[in-house]
Write a structure and sequence with these properties.
heterotrimer; A mainly alpha; B mainly alpha; C alpha/beta; A: mainly alpha; C: alpha/beta; Rossmann fold; seven-stranded mixed sheet; about 35% helix
Chain lengths: ~350, ~325, ~500
């Protein structure tokens, strides 16, 4: 594939990366066609539904916050060489802890104080849950993937138990969650939309923090070193265990914060599906962005817009909103396969160069 | 609890565990070859949906199972291509596919939601079904349940008693050693990943055409992750993996049994409970601490224990094979 | 089987691993392939067994050209190889290992364990091996795993057997057993190629020998006819040493930077990593001194280095530097100015994925002289200085895994802090070209001039003799007290490594 175009690009395999994404897009278009709709119409409708009105755009921003928070946390674990699939559970526990704090304080403390404590409680809950997975991994030698997935089930079970048990809403308990908190315990929003400035600021602060830590601090550098080669790092005097646990804790803190904010700013109560799969979606975002913190915001924004835009599909086209997830998954898979193909092409080019030389 | 109730409970457990048995055996075969197919949860959903849809369209459960197996094999082929040929992270590919297939099943399966469809007919085995207790538990169900017994037995026989199984184990343990013995490592890894994927696909159809008949959104969500965990619990051995599946089935049966008898606790809790309990069982039976405990035992006992309790993962699991 | 290799060439990047290599192994004879580490012996063996594809050259089996491009081809042609690290499956039993890869048609054939076990025991008895086929290979010693492989290869009916450094890491008794089995196999008409860097083993076993050096055949000679040596052992070894090293080694006459004052002392240290247990003699490392650790690989050199690096606590004894370092944490060793440069640079030394500049920053942060934020400008400056000073072919933003082996080693040296009391190295110049190797030693000796002591392990006796002030010999679980290098020569050193400690 030594076309003049690919010869000019810095990496010889770039064509593969682009090609894989194009194939992915064609696949998605084909799926939509299969349902008897025009991909263009669907795309236009989704863009409109995401950005058409202030309310819709605010909803994009509201979904952007938990995605950004979780993705930032995952930047730390991925760079430490860990697959923190427990992010969903950490978010759920964050939501549970925030709810617990609000329930305890709602009658005794003023609203802002109760909410501040609830946010801290959410963070703490996420940290504890992540460190549990971390301890199982570091000390128990259980793969962090399965420790995390297992703890997701436990967190999910705990949420369901609380909603249908001790925290049952008056009357009949249901999947719609606990009784809503009074409006004094709602985080303020921009106008009457779903976007909360507090949540947005929290997301922004965490993002800036993450970018700075990963790019500019020795902590970030050492964390990457541990992730790339724990043995070398130890020989050089970096306490690998401490760094691995720090990554878990940071990731848990951010996921817990996301869970807490879902309670305080979006749902105003605990619901069984408080994480709304956003934690898993964040894993995709970070993978797509090649574990680089700089890509978190644009990709999270894109994914959030897809999620919100897809809400119009059932109304306008009688299509499932799951299309958003399909698009996201296909793009990430295509990017991964494209990367593999381009690596292979480069390796082949190198081998050919060796043979010639 | 009366004996009658206990028999019903166990019979329910065996039936409830059947789809999982297929998934666990499929994943066990895949991982024995050194590949983790983390997409199981999504594969089961997508294959289950496709199997139900195909069976409904053709009014043939056979076509349904075939479609499910093909879908499972196709997803596994993507995992194999990405992991073996492109040498990308098996975890990343599997995880992406787990989410993607789940959403695909919701998107494509929308017209099938809560629709009636064919299901596997009951098939008590004449004679055997009338044997007291045993007959009720093992021989009064349907073809899928019997097929699952067969799959467990065949998988075990193949792995431990046949030439191909020996090569399969060698490929997953030490691909370089297998290669040195003339075993085609790459081809076998593809073959067993795809075969395992087909079995995971069949697990999906076993849900939608048999144990949890019909289709809704995220109909079987969670079972794939549990299957992955049970493979570890089962020490990559088909027999012990099947035991794990039956244990989970028992927990599920127990939960639905208790549901009607423990009034204070809401049903939704019982739906989640088996997953939580299973995870706790797994945490208690795996990990470093067991290894340490076994190492303290006297040598004779230690050998027995570590052969039976402490099954390490195939040494080549998750690693790409590089030929010089 | 008559095996002829003709004009074999193989390159790995810039390295010409096999340069026009020809060799003939005859049935009934044990053919030695002798050379230092890195001479290209293993490459040749792997080409003959299909693990590596050659760039050019021919392989003739019984006079007919053979196509060997996979290990399966080699097996089918009747060629088997005993690898340096036994290629088996530790998690399975010996019998399973024995049966795996046996020719057969269908994968759904039921294994006939009883028949295979009978065959296993027959072959084992014929070779004088005592292995229980039902034991797990993971519980075997290296020597037993070799025996298993020999049994397996015999069952496959190999007519040519290649042994790649088979005497590394096995006991003396196992070695005798192995040699007896090899002679037996040769008597039965097989051709044997015995790859080794150990002169003594080659002299003890082989009928003829080919010597390789730096990828080329340096010569060969017949050692035995009808089992009898054709010359005196002393003359044979001196001939072969000349071929191996290219010249009679000049006795070490080089300036030393050794001072009188001891920098570190080890007394009564016993080390145990569960595979190997060694008791060290009294060792007083003097300032500016270079001590070479000689011995077969895996004889305990690594344990000593890791102990001095603070990575392996001793079961007994003391290590004193400026302060008492016994049982201190790893950090204390780093603070005491001790630097460990492991053999596998990308596994234990450098961090693949990070750039040179990032390595510079990382080392600074570990040294505790950095704040919270990375000072990029100064790291860039540091990296550029290192590149100039050590003549590294790379840029500050080059990832270390993209550098050549020589440049990686230079990078490791560049990353060493300025003030060091002790440098611990494994194979300082392994895999390096001549120019890089000389650079490395030039730098190391400059360090000695400023008072740093060096402990290094090497499989290259030449290197040990050339650079050490004193030598510590590791042999068969024993560690001899340090001897002045001036009192040794390669020959005597070789014999000491072979177990004659008073040579």
């Amino acid at each position: 594939m030594a076309t003049p175009a690919s010869a000019k690009t810095p990496s010889p395999g770039a064509a593969y990366r682009v090609g894989a994404i194009v194939v992915g897009l064609i696949f998605i278009a084909g799926l939509v066609l299969l349902t008897g709709h025009s991909p263009i119409d669907v795309l236009v409708a989704m863009v409109k539904a995401a950005f058409g009105t202030e309310d819709q755009f605010a909803r994009v921003l509201a979904t952007l916050v938990p995605l950004t928070l979780c993705a930032c946390g995952l930047i730390f674990t991925f760079n430490a060489g860990l697959y923190n699939l427990g992010v969903e559970g950490q978010m759920i526990i964050g939501g549970i802890a925030a709810t617990l704090a609000l329930r305890l304080l709602q009658d005794s403390a003023p609203g802002p104080v109760a909410m501040a404590v609830a946010i801290l409680a959410g963070i703490a809950g996420g940290v504890v849950w992540a460190l549990l997975a971390g301890a199982l991994n570091v000390f128990g030698r259980i793969s962090e993937i399965f420790a995390g997935l297992g703890l997701n089930f436990v967190a999910q079970g705990l949420a369901v138990y609380l909603i249908f048990g001790p925290w049952k809403r008056p009357g009949v308990a249901s999947m719609s969650g606990t009784a809503p908190f009074p409006e004094t315990l709602w985080l303020p929003t921009i106008g009457k939309t779903e976007a909360s400035p507090v949540a947005l600021i929290a997301g922004l602060v965490v993002l800036v923090f993450t970018v700075i830590v990963m790019r500019n601090t020795y902590f970030g550098l050492r964390l990457r070193a541990v992730g790339l080669n724990p043995r070398s790092s130890t020989v050089q005097g970096i306490p690998a265990t401490r760094y691995l646990l720090s990554a878990f804790a940071l990731s848990g803190a951010m996921a817990g914060l996301a869970g807490g904010l879902q309670v305080l700013a979006i749902f105003h109560r605990l619901i069984p599906n408080i994480s709304s799969n956003l934690g898993f979606l964040s894993l995709l975002i970070v993978m797509l962005g090649n574990f680089n913190a700089l890509f978190v915001l644009p990709l999270a924004f894109f994914f959030s817009a897809l999620n919100v835009g897809s809400l119009t599909l059932p109304i306008q086209f009688q299509l499932e909103s799951a299309l958003a997830g399909v698009i996201q998954g296909v793009l990430v898979l295509a990017a991964l396969i494209g990367r593999g193909l381009s690596q292979q092409a480069r390796a082949r080019a190198r081998a050919a160069a060796v043979r010639k030389g | 609890m009366k004996l009658e109730e206990l028999v019903i409970l166990i019979a329910t457990a065996v039936a409830a565990a059947t789809p999982l048995v297929f998934a666990v055996i499929g994943e066990t075969i895949t991982e024995r070859a050194g590949i983790v197919n983390l997409s199981a949860d999504g594969t089961i959903l997508l294959a289950g949906m496709a199997g139900f849809g195909a069976a409904r369209a053709t009014d043939s459960i056979w076509v349904g199972f075939l479609a499910a197996a093909l879908v499972g094999a196709a997803v596994a082929a993507i995992v194999a291509y990405g992991a073996i040929t492109l040498k990308q992270s098996q975890i990343a590919i599997g995880f992406i596919l787990a989410l993607l297939c789940a959403d695909l099943s919701s998107f494509l399966g929308a017209p099938l939601v809560l629709q009636p469809g064919p299901q596997v007919p009951a098939l008590p085995i004449p004679g055997l079904a009338d044997v007291p207790i045993i007959g009720r538990i093992f021989f009064s169900s349907d073809g899928m349940v019997y097929a699952s017994y067969l799959v467990i037995g065949l998988a075990w026989l193949y792995l431990y008693r046949m030439r191909g199984g020996l090569a399969l184990r060698a490929v997953g343990e030490q691909p370089a050693a297998a290669f040195a013995r003339g075993v085609p490592v790459v081809r076998l890894r593809y073959l067993y990943t795809i075969l395992g994927g087909a079995l995971i696909g069949i697990a999906g159809a076993a849900f939608t055409l048999d144990m949890k008949t019909g289709w809704t959104y995220r109909h079987t969500a969670g079972y794939g992750w549990i299957a992955l965990a049970i493979v570890i619990f089962g020490g990559w051995n088909p027999l012990r993996g099947a035991m794990g599946a039956y244990l989970f089935g028992f927990l599920e049966a127990l939960a639905s049994f208790a549901q009607s008898r423990v009034p204070g606790v809401p049903t939704q809790v019982f739906a989640v409970l088996p997953f939580v309990l299973m995870i706790l069982v797994l945490a208690a039976t795996s990990g470093e601490w067991l290894t340490r405990l076994i190492q303290r035992a006297p040598p004779a006992l230690r050998r027995l224990l570590s052969a039976n309790l402490n099954a390490p993962a195939p040494a080549g699991l998750g690693k790409a094979f590089e030929q010089d | 089987m008559l095996v002829e290799l003709r004009h074999i060439h193989k390159r790995f990047g810039a390295v010409h691993a096999n340069n026009d290599v020809s060799l003939t192994a005859r049935p009934g004879r044990v053919h030695g392939l002798l050379g230092e580490n890195g001479a290209g012996k293993s490459t040749l063996a792997k080409i003959l067994t299909g693990f590596i594809t050659r760039d050019s050259g021919d392989i003739l089996l019984d006079g007919k050209p053979a196509r060997i491009s996979t290990p399966a081809d080699a097996t089918a042609a009747g060629i088997g190889m005993l690898h340096q690290d036994p290629l088996d499956v530790p998690a399975m039993t010996a019998l399973d290992n024995f049966m795996a890869g046996m020719p057969g048609r269908s994968p759904v054939t039921v294994l006939r364990g009883a028949a295979a076990e009978k065959r296993f025991r027959e072959i084992a008895a014929g070779l004088g091996f005592k292995l229980d086929p039902r034991d797990r290979v993971g519980d075997f010693t290296v020597g037993e795993r070799q025996q298993l492989e020999v049994i397996r290869l015999m069952a496959l009916g190999v007519r040519t057997l290649i042994l790649d450094e088979p005497t590394t890491g096995i006991s003396a008794a196992q070695k005798d057993q192995l040699f007896e089995a090899v002679r037996q196999m040769a008597r039965e008409g097989r051709s044997i190629i015995f790859v080794s860097h150990k002169l003594e083993d080659v002299c003890a076993l082989c009928d003829e020998v080919t010597v390789m050096r730096r990828g080329e055949v340096m010569g060969g000679r017949v050692l035995r006819e009808e089992g009898r040596l054709l010359d005196t052992p002393a003359r044979i070894s001196s001939d072969l040493v000349t071929l191996m090293f290219g010249r009679e080694l000049a006795s070490p006459s080089r300036e030393t930077h050794r001072q009188e004052q001891p920098a570190f002392t080890l007394s009564g240290v016993v080390l145990d990593d569960r595979r190997l247990r060694i008791a060290l003699p009294e060792i007083a490392i003097r300032r500016g001194e270079i001590i070479g650790l000689a011995g077969l690989e895996g004889s305990g050199q690594r344990l000593l280095l890791q102990h001095c690096a603070g990575l392996l606590p001793a079961t007994a004894g003391r290590l004193l530097g400026r302060t008492d370092l016994t049982h201190k944490p790893h950090k204390a060793y780093l603070r005491a100015g001790i630097m460990y440069l492991p053999a596998d640079r990308l596994k234990e030394g450098l961090i693949g994925g990070l750039t040179l500049q990032e390595h510079v920053a990382l080392r600074r942060s570990v040294a505790g002289k950095a704040g919270t934020f990375v000072n990029r400008a100064s790291a860039l400056d540091g990296a550029e200085k290192a590149i100039t000073a050590l003549n590294i072919r790379g840029r500050p933003d080059s990832r270390v895994e993209r550098l050549s082996g020589g440049n990686q080693q230079r990078a490791q040296l560049a990353l060493m802090p300025a003030q060091l009391d002790l440098i611990l190295m494994e194979h300082p110049t392994r895999g390096l070209d001549v120019e890089s190797a000389m650079w490395v030693w030039k730098l190391l000796r400059e360090r000695c001039a400023s008072g740093t002591s060096i402990l290094f392990a090497s499989a290259d006796l030449d290197e040990i003799m050339q650079y050490s002030d004193r030598v510590i010999v590791f042999s068969g679980g024993q560690v001899a007290p340090p001897v002045e290098a001036n009192a040794l020569d390669v020959d005597r050193l070789g014999r000491r490594i072979g177990g004659q400690m008073d040579a």
